[in-house]
Write a structure and sequence with these properties.
Elements (H helix, E strand, L loop, with lengths): L27 H15 L6 E5 L7 H4 L3 E4 L5 H11 L4 E7 H5 L3 H10 L4 E6 L34 H8 L3 E6 L3 H13 L4 E6 L12 H4 L11 H10 L6 E5 L16 H7 L3
Parallel strand pairs: 1-2, 1-3, 3-4, 4-6, 5-6
Antiparallel strand pairs: 5-7
Helix pairs in contact: 1-7, 5-6, 6-9
Length: 277
């Protein structure tokens, strides 16, 4: 049997022996389970997958998988993931993070990753709060939400990640919910298989600092989005949505960015010589 021949794999094979330290009830458990299910359904070799992250509760995911992983600095997960995919196009690159890491300090990388359209998948666990730093509002926090750290609310409108991704050029857009790990696994699988930059927004409740998010399971609209290749129609649907619709919203046909190949590899000494004075 060839080493590349697909074989049956279980979700457990994609999980490490490291025990997650998330709070009980955290939605990120559902993302980890959904990711493992998606990878097992695709029967990808563990060594052919790389999971990249930044900083935050959700960014712990690489440690909980048995795939190659990289835990980067705050907001720079997409930069690291892009570099890896460009250098190793043979790998399946999955970037994970949260709404703070991805849309605040990492917002610039988010926009330009959509624009570049490198063939990778970006999974953002959105709980509309900074959980690791004890309940600060994030870019997606509602303006009227109050806490001990923000007793009068932010007074700022929340950003719309899917709308930003759409106008910036993402090639695949979808939203999932951690309360439906099987449906989320299917979305992740579609995202990984779709060429170009795939963005998956995941509603992932933070029951510690936003216990009211337990009600999300009653508020989500299952399979509300209908996949379309029409960018204008997808934009219209996304802008009219209340942020709780699930499913694939857009599947684009833009060719993924690929750098020129066939250039000879340089040794470190060759690179150093180019900067010699």
């Amino acid at each position: 049997m060839s080493e590349h021949t697909p074989v049956s794999r279980t979700p457990a094979q994609y999980k490490s022996d490291v025990k997650p330290v998330w709070c009980p009830g955290c939605g990120d458990f559902g993302v980890l389970n959904a990711l493992a299910k998606a990878l097992s359904k695709m029967a990808l070799r563990v060594e052919d997958v790389a999971v990249i992250s930044g900083i935050g509760c959700s960014s712990r995911i690489p440690a909980y998988t048995s795939c190659y992983g990289f835990h980067g600095v705050h907001g720079r997960a997409l930069a690291a993931g892009t570099g890896l995919k460009v250098a190793r196009p043979d790998l399946t690159v999955i970037v994970t993070g949260g709404d703070g890491d991805g849309y605040s300090i990492g917002g610039n990388h988010f926009l330009h990753s959509c624009r570049r359209n490198v063939d990778l998948t970006y999974i953002v666990m959105d709980n509309r709060v900074y959980g690791m730093t004890k309940g600060q509002p994030s870019p997606t926090t509602e303006s009227g939400w109050t806490s001990k750290l923000m007793p009068e609310g932010t007074g700022l409108g929340a950003i719309h990640p899917m709308a930003l991704a759409m106008v910036a050029g993402a090639n695949f857009l979808a939203r999932g919910f951690t309360g439906d790990p099987n449906g989320l696994a299917d979305i992740i699988m579609q995202a990984v298989r779709h060429p170009g930059f795939s963005f998956v927004e995941v509603l992932s409740p933070c029951v510690t600092f936003r216990p009211e998010q337990r009600d999300w399971k009653k508020m989500v609209h299952e399979d509300a989005f209908e996949a379309t290749t029409d960018a204008a129609l997808a934009t219209q649907r996304i802008m009219a949505d209340d942020g709780m619709s699930l499913g694939v919203a857009y599947t684009g046909a833009r060719a993924p960015f690929r750098p020129p190949m066939g250039v000879g590899r340089l040794r470190p000494a060759d690179l150093e010589a180019q900067f010699a004075l």
